[in-house]
Structure to design on (207 residues):
């Protein structure tokens, strides 16, 4: 049996309570709404919220009754689990530096008070089959790459019709795009020369 859906968070701290109970401590700001997709009716949403609140209250009572950390001050200096507790407390709870835990009793007191005060929400899995240790959850270190936005297609008039241009600004048949202003100038120049091919308007230059 895993944690309930609302009991999962990348900021949570997972701690053992008994031989087969594991508790996820979730910062209150990470607790999701019971109906994030707004798929339930009002009555269904109220019922789901009531059931969740009742479960949270039961988990809060069980956590307060069972959670104990037995690490003395000397062992805390080299204990990996104590460092996980201390880092979690430092990042997610509002305590002064003088109140930072120095042993297991301090961790027990601070986390139990935070659960009672509503800063942390406990979610208990009562048939846990995973690791029996203190585990901090972390967000993925890499995310799927976002697909590049599609580039808009640019069109231009040719022979009285809109024709798409490619990425280099040419018509799809590789004909260079000539703006209407340049084309009109070329036509006027050609007309003033009387249509003579010998006047030699630089069409390539215009293009």
């Amino acid at each position: 049996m895993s944690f309930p859906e609302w009991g999962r968070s990348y900021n949570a701290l997972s701690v053992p309570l008994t031989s087969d109970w594991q508790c996820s401590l979730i910062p209150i700001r990470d607790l999701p709404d019971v109906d994030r997709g707004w798929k339930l009716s009002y009555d269904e949403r109220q019922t789901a919220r009531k059931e969740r609140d009742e479960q949270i209250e039961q988990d809060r009572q069980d956590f307060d009754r069972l959670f104990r950390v037995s690490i003395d001050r000397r062992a805390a200096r080299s204990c990996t689990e104590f460092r996980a507790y201390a880092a979690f407390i430092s990042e997610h709870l509002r305590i002064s530096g003088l109140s930072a835990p120095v042993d297991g009793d301090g961790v027990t007191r601070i986390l139990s008070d935070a659960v009672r005060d509503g800063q942390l929400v406990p979610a208990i899995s009562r048939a846990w089959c995973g690791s029996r240790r203190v585990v901090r959850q972390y967000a993925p270190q890499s995310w799927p790459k976002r697909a590049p936005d599609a580039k808009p297609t640019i069109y231009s008039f040719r022979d009285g019709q809109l024709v798409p241009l490619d990425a280099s600004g040419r018509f799809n048949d590789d004909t260079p795009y000539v703006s209407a202003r340049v084309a009109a100038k070329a036509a006027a120049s050609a007309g003033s020369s009387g249509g003579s091919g010998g006047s030699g308007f630089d069409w390539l230059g215009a293009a």
The beta strands are 13-16, 22-27, 120-125, 135-136, 155-158, 161-164.
